[in-house]
Each structure stands twice: as C-alpha cells, then as structure tokens.
Amino acid sequence: MDRLASGISNTCVSRKIPVPKIVVTDNIVVGIQYECGVIIATDVGPTISNMYRLHDNIYAAVTGVGQDICAVVSVIQSKLEMHHMTTNYRRVPVRCANQMAKQLLHSQDGDLNVNLLIAGVDKYGTEMYSTRFDGSSDTAPFTAMGTGTMNAMSLLETRWRTGLDEETARDVIREAVICGTGRVEGPFKSPIRLCILRNDYSMLDETIGSVVQPLRPFVSRVVPKIVGERVVMVESSTPENGGSGEESVVAKEKINTGGLAKIDEGGDK
Questions:
Q1: What is the full DSSP assignment across the chain?
Q2: Cα–Cα distance for residue pair 171/30, rounded to 1 Å
Q3: What domains are there in the chain, each with its CATH number?
Q4: So what's the pLDDT on residue 160?
Q5: pLDDT tens column, 69-91
Q6: For the residues 218-222, what does the mean pLDDT come to?
Q7: Cα(230)–Cα(63) distance, rounded to whole angstroms?
C-alpha cells in the first residue's frame, strides 16, 4: 500500500499536478485522556451546538445532522434522568450513557446520522467512548469524529503520550481541532469549545477564541421603473434586517407605452 501511494505521488509530481488547496470541512469533535481527566473539544458552528450535557457528570460532543442530533440527545437525557431516579439518585455511570446511545442508534439501523463522543467521570474514574451512527462503539485514549477525522487523528497520533498534564493536553486537542477543520488562518479561523472533566468531579466548560457573527447576506431584488418610454430594471441590494441599500441599473428595454398605460389604469381602479 505504501509503495502504491508513493507511486501515485511520483506520478503526480512528474505530471506537474498542482498541490491541492486546504479544504474547509464541516465540523470535528476530538477527545483526549490525560493524567487527571479527559477533555473533549469541538469547533463552534454557526447553526447548532455540538456540545451537550447528558447528565451532571456526563457530557457529549456530537456531529451529524442537526435534527437527528437534537432528537437523540433529548432521548438520552430523558433515559439517564429516569435511570438516575430509579437507582435512588446515585451517580450515573458513563458506560450507562454509552449503552443507551448504542441501543438507540442500533435500533434505527443507521437512519439517524449522529456520531457521539461521550465522556464523563464516575466511581471508576474518567471514561470516554466514541459511538457511531450504526450503533458500534469503542474506547481509546484519544479519538476524533467528523469530516476532518483523518487530519485530526494524524496529529493526535504524533503528539499524544501517556501522562500528559492538563495544559499540554489542552494545546494538543486545540491543534487537533484546528487541523481537522482546516480553518488555520485569517477570519475563517473558528473558535473552539472545550469541556474538561477531572477525576475530582470538577468540570470546566470554556470557549477559546472570539465568536465572530457572519455578515447577513444581501437580498437582490430586480424592480422595474418607468423612465420616459423605457423600463429600467433596477437591482436593489438590501440587507435582510432592513436598512438602506444601493441601487444599480442592470438592464434597459423598450416597451409599448400603451400597455403600461392600461396596466396603470387597471391598478388605479
């Protein structure tokens, strides 16, 4: 396989094929275990949150279709709360949340496009599970899910080691998210949301970087205006939230003034 990949690379170089540009992907969720806990992180998207609190000691970073995400998270939260009450309000194990997510996704035969990275702390310590849309699940000291998985995993495999302290783990997971999204420079660099769960049951939820709201798009409307014997099509660019816009003449066309007069008379009546 390596020889085949090397041959393809040499062929591209010999044919002077340009190096592909960086592709900005949709979103990425990354999880990493360190000496005193676990960290999950995701890029902050413009539409829906990718970080959810499943229970007091359990959080999940989610990627997939927005409507499916809301439905799956709501069902898991309800089931965990019911389990919490039936067990005399004992702390819910993290593996219990993972099992509920697996059963729910497996029962739908992969129709729910949701991938969850579940992390939490219980009497067994900190745990992290990656559960995919088909109901399969596994656990690892570091993992990534989403459209930029390969890029993030390549960095995690290089930088992760046993016994990481919290500060180093924060830097590693931040670089993994940036590498997975492809937004590495300029105004397209998206903020990152971190959730740190420690062995002493303390939790830190923070956002690194400022959230820049995108400019609202302009709506172009073509409005006919009568100028003498001509109809001038004026393109008016107006923001969706109101305000003054600019007008520019884009086309002119001669028409029958008699037809316009009839239209105007009908409108006046």
A1: -HHHHHHHHHHHHHTTPPPPPPPP-S-EEEEEEETTEEEEEEE--SSS--EEEEETTEEEEEEE-HHHHHHHHHHHHHHHHHHHHHTTSPPPPHHHHHHHHHHHHHHTTT-S-EEEEEEEEETTEEEEEEE-TTS-EE--SEEEEETTHHHHHHHHHHH--TT--HHHHHHHHHHHHHHHH---SGGG---EEEEEEETTS-EEEEEES--PPPPPPEEEEEEEEEETTEEEEEEEEEETT----EEEEEEEEE--HHHHHHHHHHHH-
A2: 12
A3: 22-208 (3.60.20.10), 218-268 (no CATH)
A4: 93
A5: 989 999 999 999 999 999 999 99
A6: 44
A7: 55
Q: Cα torsion for 185, 187, 192, 193, to the nearest 10°?
A: 180
- At residue 26, the pLDDT reads 61
Is residue 64 very low, low, confident or very high in pLDDT (cuts 50, 70, 90)? confident
pLDDT at residue 93, rounded to an integer: 95
Kindly state the tokens that stand for 104.
């729910």
The structure tokens listed for 5 are 């990949």
pLDDT single digits (tens) 166-217: 999 999 999 999 888 876 544 446 788 999 999 999 999 988 876 544 444 4
Residue with tokens 């029958």, as numbered in its chain: 256
End-to-end CA distance of the chain: 79
Neighbour tally for 112: CB within 10 Å: 20
